[in-house]
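Illustration: X-Pro dipeptidase.
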Amino acid sequence: MHAVRRGLLRDRCAAAGSAAALVSRPANVRYLAGGAPPGAVLLLGPGEDVLLCPRAPTGESGHGRPDEALRVDVLPVPDGDPVVEAAGLAAASGADSLAVEEHDLTVARHRAMAKAAPRLLLADLGFTVEQQRIVKDEEEIGCLRIAAEITDQALGELLESILVGRTERHLALELERRLVDHGADGPAFATSVATGPNSGQGRHRPTDRRVEEGDFLSVRLGASYHGYRCEIGRTFVIGTAPADWQIELYDLVFAAQRGGREALAPGAAYREVDRAARQPLESAGYGEGLQPWTGHGVGLEIEEDPQLAPTAMGKLDACVPVTVEPGVHLPGRGGVRIDDTLVVRPEADGGPELLTMTTKELLAL
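Result:
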């Protein structure tokens, strides 16, 4: 599988006139090599492919396991730079040009490569690997499915516990512990727990505020499993029947999220999916406070292409996992977020596949 991925990239580089390619962005290295020990880079040479590592791989699950068919070289000097070593290796193997990920390299590293191999023409590989990663194979989707199951388990257990009086920070730490207990590599991103006036914010960092009766409680979390990351977001009411304004706001966000989910289909424009989730909220007068996007791709990184945004260009393909995550935050009062991870599927296969299964009913906990 990884050899096939490397072969596709090699063909694209050859078509662009590059004899070799150097991949340095960690998620891209893992995608092509199977494993990405810290600091490792992947050289697709004119001969064999080489994974260059500052230190010997330890086999930690969070880093993945390098493809056994891949040559692994450990740098002789621990503080050496693998990209500089790769440039010299490419030149020594007869390459006259090397495509590199300029968006990942610092200017200093780029200059060091040019100095180490002055006759080697350095070209820009651009976002070729990121684009190759957008459509997932069924093995990748299987990892995302397990990550979602772990996330649902952790969230479900938390909802069965006593919440009143506990801090946002404590609840976030407990959720992350539960993710690991159920088999995750770790959290897919920093878990967000937001209560009362903090609820509904997209990037809230948990505080020492304690959960109170009548609060909205917004939770956003995800598991990483074999490197693949999912996302779920839910909003609940604490301890009592929800107030009328809470029911009204929740129903509005739920309708927006449902609209985005139902718009997911092969061939659907990114901006049209965003519009389906955004338009109900704008019509209700909440347009100014919305996030720049209402969803994004997921995989080896929690925020990948595509973006579901008003100005995004492109159309969805089948087997692309994305989030749909509209939300509204009312300053001083709180708000609602509902996030799901889904896989785009054609209507003949049942339409979009929902991975995150925790109920979206407005529960009073």
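Reading the tokens back as a structure: DSSP finds nine helices and 19 strands in the chain.
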